[in-house]
Task: inverse folding
């Protein structure tokens, strides 16, 4: 089992739709979780941190389920500008154990 | 505030050539990282550093070397370029690793390297 696994993409959704991505992690000792956004040929940028019970930022909601070892990202009222690849990042212990998922590609269409 | 600055943005190397990818950050971050990203894949850690004078191997260190003589700079050296090193390279930094916002990674804009 991979350390961090994400929903396979691409997700093609119409503008205004609600879409959710999941990310599972294998190590129960993992302590920190993040969602990063990566546009084509660009560097990843932090979208949201996910701690304990999760958090919300505008149209974006991130949840953490420690019992089932997954995090999720919910995007409401999708915009064309949300089209990107969303990377799940899990930190377990030290600086070297910062693991990226392979990403889920989202394409929002008219 | 420039953040993380990476140079060059693009480079084509011949097999066996060497080069150094430069990375500098002005945020006084302790932690710095080098990642490579192959098409359709996640980022893989090459080397990292937790402070000046300290470096350690990541997941895919073979064929690369690093140094950290100052807090600001973390260059990545390719000694004998091979086609398998064709990839996009990202440098990143963070203040620390531990609960809280200090773990946020700030990335440079990337270097697209082709070895032919």
Result:
């Amino acid at each position: 089992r991979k350390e961090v696994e994400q929903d396979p993409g691409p997700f093609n959704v119409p503008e205004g739709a609600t879409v959710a991505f999941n990310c599972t992690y294998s190590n129960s000792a993992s302590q920190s979780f993040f969602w990063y956004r990566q546009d084509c040929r660009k560097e990843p940028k932090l979208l949201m941190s996910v701690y304990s019970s999760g958090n919300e930022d505008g149209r974006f909601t991130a949840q953490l389920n420690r019992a089932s070892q997954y995090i999720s990202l919910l995007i409401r009222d999708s915009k064309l500008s949300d089209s990107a690849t969303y990377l799940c990042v899990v930190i377990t212990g030290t600086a070297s154990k910062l693991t990226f998922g392979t990403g889920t590609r989202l394409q929002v269409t008219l | 505030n420039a953040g993380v600055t990476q140079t060059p943005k693009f480079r084509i190397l011949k097999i066996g050539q060497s080069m150094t990818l430069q990375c500098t950050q002005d945020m006084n971050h302790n932690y710095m990282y080098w990642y490579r990203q192959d098409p359709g894949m996640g980022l893989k850690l090459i080397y990292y550093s937790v402070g000046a004078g300290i470096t350690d191997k990541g997941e895919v260190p073979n064929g690369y070397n690093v140094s950290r003589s100052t807090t600001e700079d973390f260059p990545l050296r390719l000694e004998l370029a091979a086609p398998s090193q064709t990839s996009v390279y990202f440098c990143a930094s963070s203040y620390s690793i531990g609960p809280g916002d200090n773990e946020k990674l700030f990335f440079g804009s990337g270097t697209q390297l082709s070895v032919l």
Q: What stands out?
A: Residues 36 and 46 of chain A are 4 Å apart (CA to CA). The mean pLDDT of chain A is 91. The radius of gyration of chain A is 13 Å. Chain A is about 0% helix and 55% strand.
